[in-house]
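Troubleshooting log. The previous structure file for this entry was overwritten by mistake, so regenerating from the original sequence record. Sequence copied from the archived sheet and checked twice against the printout by T.R.
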Amino acid sequence: MDEGWTTVKGRHRRPKNTKSAPSSLLSPATRTVPHLEVTEMKDEYNTVLRKFMKSTSYHIIRTIAWEFTLNAEQIPITKAICLGIGTFDPSDGSLAIKQKAHKQLAAFLVMVEELEIPSLTKPQQLEKHTGGHIECIFQEPMFTPGDISFLNEMGHRVVESPVGSEAVDSQTFLYGVHLYKDIYSMSLQGELPAVFVGTGWDAWSEYVFKTPFRTSF
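Regenerated output below.
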């Protein structure tokens, strides 16, 4: 995962055209193993989550999310959009791919949970920014029907591309790690999100925006 959060300001900054993802990478591969049951995905996620909660990364992420709320403007975050998390049921049964997706899911939901913490535990000035339910929306072209059912049963919503990217606004927590530049461009072409977690800003901002964001951290 990337180390920091980037707080973004402003609206309606238009990105330059960027290279699209190869179509071959968006096409489903031939399946060589049976599909997982939703119950199996839940078991695998819970195993990853338990291990993650014992890690240093877990506590660092919670601290970063807490520090963000302490410095946030009075704009409520009402939805969290997760892009390109990967499939929990890869066509070849790859353990590494499954674990990566589950780790990303765990990290994303930990951040959402921190942003949802009731404002009674935070300074009064944060009441308008945190403490309410945050809808979680997932967009991933490689999702299987089982992936979708897994997330639906957790209470989250899955949408097709580009619905999630186009839903980003100033009240959004946007999460997308190591995505193609055209996905970032599509997601950031309108109102900028309240919070963005993704590939390091310095790695690609000069190619996407004429005017850079004002960053923190």
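The chain has one domain: 38-121+131-200. Archived copy saved in two places this time.
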